[in-house]
Amino acid sequence: DVCSSDLIARSPLADKQFGVFDYKKSCDHPLTNGTAAPVRFPHSRWNEVQLKALESHGYSVLTKSPEAGVDLFVKQKKQSLFVHFQGHPEYFGQTLLKEYRRDIRRFLTNERETYPSLPHGYFDADATKLLDEFRRNAEIYRQEDLIQVFPETAVGDTLRNTWRGSALCVYRNWLQLLSSKRTVVSQVPAAFRSGNR
């Protein structure tokens, strides 16, 4: 991991950075070409790498949010571009729901003290209403078997993968960068590639 080799410390957060957040592009870069505004990605983390620390170690921050901090950042090292996300563009539409259910179960079994916060920007009003009702019951009747009536199907039917477009665009750009680099390398005569001049 490039961040560890640069000795950049992760800062703990007061609560889990959990949900789907909107990011703005902070500079032009081939990785973010063609992304719609805002760039959206899901997050699920208890710590963060901060903007100033990244910039002071030569990273380019490509997307950031006043609410959720840095997401996509890169660093060029010799011929390699190291690409980092603090979020999870690879998540499926129901991944955050499953994580939320797991955290609720941990609350019900006393593995965690506090009831988990709702994922930000993820559930619609109807789903939120169902989940708030479940929370009220869970806080009154704190027992593991209550998870059996968690409204996973009803809530899951309301979900939309709102970050898919952003993820596909960034991954497509990344693959194009890798492909163009391979093309350039393959055009260099073999003698030069192996250092036999």
Oligomer: single chain
Give the spatial strand order of the biggest sheet.
2-1-4-5
Strand content: 15-25%
User: Could you give the distance between the termini?
Assistant: 34 Å
Task: Tell how many strands the DSSP assignment holds.
Answer: 7
Q: Give average pLDDT, whole number.
A: 90
What does the radius of gyration come to? 21 Å
Structural class, judged by helices and strands? alpha+beta
What proportion of the residues is helical, as a percent range? Answer: 25-40%
Outline the biggest β-sheet.
Answer: 4 strands, antiparallel
Quickly count the helices. Answer: 7
Could you name the ranges where pLDDT drops below 50 across 5 or more consecutive residues? 184-188, 190-197
**Order of SSEs:** HEEHEEEEEHHHHH
**Backbone shape:** elongated
Description:
The chain is an alpha+beta fold and 197 residues long. Helix content is 37%, strand content 22%. The protein contains seven helices and seven strands, in the order αββαβββββααααα. It has a four-stranded antiparallel sheet.
Short description:
The chain has 197 residues and is α+β, with helices and mostly antiparallel strands. It has helices at 2-5, 51-56, 95-108, 125-140, 152-156, 164-187, 190-193, and strands at 11-25, 39-48, 60-61, 63-65, 69-70, 72-77, 80-85.
What are its keywords?
alpha+beta; 4-stranded antiparallel sheet; 7 helices; 37% helix; elongated
Secondary structure topology:
Blueprint: H1 2-5, E1 11-25, E2 39-48, H2 51-56, E3 60-61, E4 63-65, E5 69-70, E6 72-77, E7 80-85, H3 95-108, H4 125-140, H5 152-156, H6 164-187, H7 190-193
Antiparallel strand pairs: 1-2, 1-4, 3-6, 4-5, 6-7
